[in-house]
Design brief:
Elements lengths: L9 E4 L5 H10 L3 E4 L4 E4 L4 H12 L4 E4 L2 H12 L4 H8 L3 E4 L2 H9 L6 E2 L6 H11 L6 E7 L4 H9 L3 E11 L5 H11 L5 E4 L2 H14 L2 H8 L3 E4 L2 H9 L13 H22 L1
Parallel strand pairs: 1-2, 1-9, 4-5, 4-7, 5-6, 7-8, 9-10
Antiparallel strand pairs: 3-8
Helix pairs in contact: 2-4, 3-5, 6-7, 8-10, 9-11
Length: 281
């Protein structure tokens, strides 16, 4: 067991939507937060895919709707409500299997008075999602809509197509870089300069955005070198996939992919991980 508490160490995170919450959590566990958003959530300029989905749902047939995020689930149905009476949406959904990738889409559905047909178990990766579908029923010749968030998941889409599904994407929102990159660049410089001991990754898209900025600035290698002397904690398998893709180290992953558990469990292991890294230098 590691020493409990972050002992005044600086802890960086790139969280945007839950920035205030992660700051409180870091402080509660004895760390000094350095939280700068790497993401800006913006609505799609063109909601045509979501509106086309509404037409398919209400006048044609959608056999299965895969909901990947809670925010996206809420946004999708809010959009549909601007075009269709809610009772007609509910009636159309009776013919549609609702697949929720984890607790956030489940909560969003329940807030709308809806129940998921299937809930993907932790750690809620696309692999877990496909395995859940395989156990449920073959998707061959089914019309499967995938509510997307941020960026598409080509592995998920390909797995569905390989199984013979007719897949159509329903993008609801996407990520952009922050309009002002100054705070993010400063945080990255602090990491490169060795002023940060812990980095918490709470969203896979954060990693892609940080790499974009580092590439523009020609600082990828010094950043990676700095990470090897720190504790890099990933909230869960989906984020860890992106970290591995970009050759970032992963020193810790919590028992459950939740922000509170990430900070708590990382705080207990940080001192031991840092000591181990120092001994290997």
């Amino acid at each position: 067991m590691g020493t409990v508490g972050l002992n005044g160490l600086t802890v960086a995170a790139f969280e945007s939507r839950m920035a205030a919450e992660i700051i409180r959590l870091i402080e509660r566990h004895g760390g000094v937060p350095l939280v700068t958003p790497a993401l800006r959530e913006i609505p799609l300029d063109d909601n045509s895919a979501a509106l086309k989905f509404g037409v398919q749902l209400t006048t044609e047939r959608v056999d299965m709707l895969i909901l990947l995020t809670g925010v996206g689930t809420t946004a999708l149905f809010d959009l549909l409500k601007t075009r269709y009476p809610w009772p007609s949406i509910v009636e159309a959904l009776k013919q549609t299997a609702l697949v929720a990738r984890g607790p956030k889409p489940v909560a969003a559905l329940k807030a709308l008075g809806l129940q998921p047909t299937l809930t993907v178990p932790e750690p809620n990766t696309w692999i877990d999602l496909v395995s859940t579908l395989d156990e449920y029923r073959p998707v061959k010749k089914l019309r499967v809509a995938v509510q997307e968030y941020g960026v598409s998941n080509p592995d998920l889409l390909e797995a569905l197509k390989q199984r013979g599904a007719e897949v159509f994407q329903v993008p609801i929102y996407r990520w952009a870089l922050p309009e002002d990159l100054g705070p993010l660049r400063q945080a990255l410089n602090n990491i490169i300069d060795g002023k940060v001991s812990v980095l918490l990754i709470t969203n896979a898209a954060q990693v892609d955005h940080v790499m974009q900025v580092l590439e523009k600035d020609g600082k990828i290698e010094p950043f990676r070198a700095a990470l090897n002397k720190m504790v890099v904690a990933s909230i869960g398998p989906t984020a860890s996939e992106r970290l591995r893709h970009h050759d970032w180290p992963i020193d810790f992953e919590p028992s459950h992919p939740k922000m509170g558990i990430l900070v708590k469990e990382t705080s207990k292991q940080t001192i031991a991980i840092l000591k181990n890294k120092k001994e290997k230098e």
